[in-house]
Amino acid sequence: MLRGTFQRAGAWLRGLRRGPRGPAESARRGVVSCIDPSMGLNEEQKEFQKVAFNFAAREMAPHMAEWDQKELFPVDMMRKAAQLGFGGVYIQTDVGGAGLSRLDASVIFEALATGCTSTTAYMSIHNMCVWMIDRFGSEEQRQRLCPPLCAMEMFASYCLTEPGSGSDAASLVTSAVRQQDHYILNGSKAFISGGGEADIYVVMCRTGGPGPRGISCVVVEKGTPGLSFGKKEKKVGWNSQPTRAVIFEDCAVPVANRIGDEGQGFLIAMKGLNGGRINVASCSLGAAHASLVLARDYLKVREQFGQPLANNQYLQFQLAEMAARLVASRLMIRTAAMALQEEREDAVVLCSMAKLFATDECFAICNQALQMHGGYGYLKDYAIQQYVRDSRVHQILEGSNEVMRMLISRSLLQE
Ligand SMILES: Cc1cc2nc3c(=O)[nH]c(=O)nc-3n(C[C@H](O)[C@H](O)[C@H](O)COP(=O)(O)OP(=O)(O)OC[C@H]3O[C@@H](n4cnc5c(N)ncnc54)[C@H](O)[C@@H]3O)c2cc1C
Fold first, then answer.
1. Stated pTM of the model
2. Rounded CA separation 142/126 (Å)
3. Separation of CA 34 from chain center
4. Closest Cα to atom 43, ligand 1: which residue?
5. Which of 159, 397, 398 to mutate for ligand 1's pocket (most ligand atoms within 8 Å of CB)?
6. pLDDT value at 94 more than 80
7. What are phi and psi of 184, to 5 degrees?
8. What pLDDT, on the 0 to 100 scale, is given for residue 24?
9. Are the C-beta atoms of 332 and 362 separated by less than 8 Å?
10. Residue with CA closest to ligand 1 atom 48
11. Closest CA to 366 of 309, 274, 292
12. Helices 102-113 & 117-136, crossing angle to 10 degrees?
């Protein structure tokens, strides 16, 4: 029964290859030609982009303020999104995924993020976790775990950061000591998105000596004795998804839940993050696109000094710069997504550049759009402040933007 559901979800997106279908009219909100996100896409991509914009406008945008203010994790909405294939966008089709590319995923996450940046960002982390299982898991693990995850019947969390290891992730100390056919986990993970609500925790833990080669990746299922959660963190943004510490106290996890080989965990975590960086940067694009459109509309209607603000050349030039920075960010993200898809050697550094550039620029665009709203931009009645708050954290996580600079400069200096 369940299996049929995810196959239908994947088939729906794949069916678009055969020609346009889905909702007849685009719900893309306020698309302006020079910043049109469909520029350069093929017909199939334009179709699923429309579907994602439509979904964002109808199912997400009307609720984003409530999810934020009441801190609601919108499970039902995400399950609806999964029916369209958004729970496993770049997951293989035999396990319920949509089988689309990294570029396709970026197009989809950008569109969804216009409706709620925070929830889309969680969905992108979920996709990253499912990909890690799909790509590095055994056939048994793929068939057992991926289908319910693609359908978002089950939710996943990515567990790398610890209280004492953030940017220096390879120094993590959560231990996994083998006892017959189980690992006994002890330690804790900090800042885990989806923590407490997710059903599956993809955990990087130490099975060997110090450094990255001593790290393995195991899946810990909710309900396992010895697994518990910290309090729900109070955050500036990303309020539609819970963030909690994940704690392991003599938590026995079957060896059969290890993804990949012993010692391969850090590599798996980093491979996941390459795509994660494209995804989170795409969420920033969606927030910046929506903010720019809101600012443009506001400048046209708000009058000061006897005329619309849009007549002021300073503000016109700022709007122009915001548009140029948005399009530049999108081009970088899409170039990196294609490099990752083709498994090119420069993919890691291009993903780092795209994440650094786009999350910085897009946050600046959202913030400038708030400034253009004056005092009203600071009120929670206006959506703009939520895009600012939700996109701020993208400069910090999935590898902070300082870490991105480290990766880029290391690559340059090695040549
Ligand atoms: C809302 C939220 C959700 C998150 N979700 C997850 C999740 O789902 N899973 C997960 O594993 N983690 C998650 N994280 C954790 C996130 O990845 C880390 O916060 C991030 O990697 C930075 O680590 P840190 O906070 O320990 O900062 P630190 O590493 O202590 O860094 C502090 C500051 O110093 C800078 N810095 C550090 N080292 C250097 C250096 N060598 N040179 C220059 N600057 C440096 C950093 O860039 C940063 O600005 C989340 C964080 C937040 C806030």
1. 0.94
2. 15
3. 25
4. 402
5. 397
6. yes
7. -100, 110
8. 26
9. no
10. 400
11. 292
12. 160
Ligand 1 centroid – CA 140 distance (Å): 34
Strands of 165-226, DSSP E: 175-179, 182-193, 200-206, 215-221
- Could you tell me if the CB of 164 is within 6 A of ligand 1? no
Q: pLDDT digits over 278-321, tens only? A: 999 999 999 999 999 999 999 999 999 999 999 999 999 999 99
Are 201 and 220 in contact by the 8 Å Cβ rule? The answer is yes
Look up tokens 């964002």; give the residue: 56
Strand (E) positions, 255-286? 258-259
The dihedral over CA atoms of 83, 88, 91, 95, expressed in degrees to the nearest 10, equals -50
Whose structure tokens read 């993804």?
A: 259
Which residue type occupies 242?
P
When pLDDT is cut at 50, 70 and 90, the band that residue 415 belongs to is confident
How many Å apart are CA 236 and CA 92, to the nearest integer? Answer: 35
Output phi, psi for 388, to 5 deg.
Answer: -65, -50
Could you identify the atom of ligand 1 that is nearest to the CA of residue 398? 17
CB of 321 sitting under 6 A from ligand 1: no
CB 387 within 8 Å of CB 372: no
Q: What is the largest CA-CA distance in the chain?
A: 79
Structure tokens, 347: 């993919």
Which residues, in sequence order, are bridge partners of residue 143?
none
Task: Say if ligand 1 is within 6 A of residue 201 CB.
Answer: no
97-152 pLDDT, tens digit per residue, is 999 999 999 999 999 999 999 999 999 999 999 999 999 999 999 999 999 999 99
Backbone angles phi, psi at 9, to 5 degrees: -60, -50
Report the alpha-carbon distance of residue 38 to residue 16 in Å, rounded.
16
Averaged pLDDT for residues 340-368: 98
Which distant-in-sequence residues (6+ apart) come within 8 Å of 314 by Cβ? Answer: none
* pLDDT score of 27 more than 90: no
Rounded distance, CA 113 to CA 119, Å? 8
